[in-house]
Amino acid sequence: MPELPEVETVRRGLIPLVVGRRVLGVTVRERRLREPIAPGGLRRLRGVRLTGIERRSKYLLFGTDAGLTLLVHLGMTGQLCVCDRGRPRRAHEHVVLRLDDGRELRYADARRFGMMRLLDSEGLHRHPRLSGLGPEPLGGSLDAAVLHRATRRLTKPIKNFLMDTRAVAGVGNIYACETLHRAGIRPTRPVGRLSRAAWEAVVGSLRQVLHEAIEAGGTTRRDFLNAEGNPGYFAVSLRVYDRAGKGCGRCGAVIKRIVQAGRSTFYCPRCQR
DNA sequence: CTGAGCACCTGAGGGC
DNA sequence: TGCCCTCAGGTGCTCA
Question: Is A272 contained in some domain?
Fold first, then answer.
């Protein structure tokens, strides 16, 4: 489900539902996530008040009045939603936080590639998954000139570079493909051979496509659920991703699928050079 | 340094 | 109808 726009959509949807709420109880039904939940690892959540939700890359950070932060990653299939206590359990609901308004925050994740961990401010600060992240694509720190200068000697394909979280945070497979189509750049191009102007196009396209997806409610895939647990819909129209064999909307050429670093890449062989 | 390959898991979809 | 195969939004490891 979640790339950055989906995670941001979940964040925005959850804020009015959970911020200000006190956690009355925590149930962990399945601790074997990608990073297993330690026994009692979420126990200290009981009694705290949730004070805000931040996002870093595809991680959600739930702040609390106890100085603890609940770090959540949705992996490939993770879902977070707030619902009434009586709502029937869905499959793979691994963690439930009981809130003081009679509702529950539920974490479900079929493939269990996600994570959920409670950290104090020190643990959060030095957490390797967060400390190694590159600049946020939607923050002010992503800079085409800096990227251009930093990549002069690199031969890695631009698509793989975009998906390297140490270089740029939070760019997944879908938006890497979509960004490069908009920028008119072939995914296999070595980063070291991108001109300054090409970098401007990449950064501009990345920001644009992420903004559009967030504006549209972040829905790119079928199993997206919004914060109230209702299914989303295909609100974002993808121009190349999962469109192999179909026509490019800009030039009509047939979109190709290749594999890079084990992931599918989709691109238009005519308008991406 | 690079990237290929694999690992973690379940489920959807296509072909037969 | 069902079985078997491939593939999937993420991340992180080993290995060559």
Answer: no
Q: Which amino acid is at A138?
A: L
| A157 a catalytic residue | no
Higher pLDDT, A273 or A233: A273
- Could you list the residue range(s) of the whole structural domain that residue A106 is in? 4-131
Provide the CA A261 to C1' C11 distance, Å, integer: 13
CB A24 within 8 A of CB A98: yes
pLDDT band at A233 (very low <50, low <70, confident <90, very high): very low
Give yes or no: residues A125 and A151 share one domain.
no
Domain CATH for A222: 1.10.8.50
Q: In A 20-49, which Cβ lie closer than 7 Å to strand B? A: 32, 34
- A258 contact to strand B (CB, 7 A limit): no
Query: For chain A, how many residues are written?
Result: 273
A137 has catalytic annotation: no
Q: What Å value separates CA A260 and C1' B6? A: 15
* Domains in chain A, number: 2
A112 touches strand B (CB under 7 A): yes
Regarding whether A164 and A83 lie in a shared domain, the answer is no
Task: Please identify which of the residues A31, A189, A263, A270 carries the catalytic annotation.
Answer: A263
Residue A221 inside a domain? The answer is: yes
On whether both A124 and A160 belong to a single domain, the answer is no
E-strand ranges in A65-190 read 69-73, 78-84, 93-99, 103-109, 115-119
Q: Is the pLDDT of residue A36 over 80?
A: yes
Residue A219 above 90 pLDDT?
no
Output the pLDDT for position A153: 87
Identify the residue whose Cα has the smallest distance to the C1' of B11: A110
Distance CA A94, CA A81 (A): 12
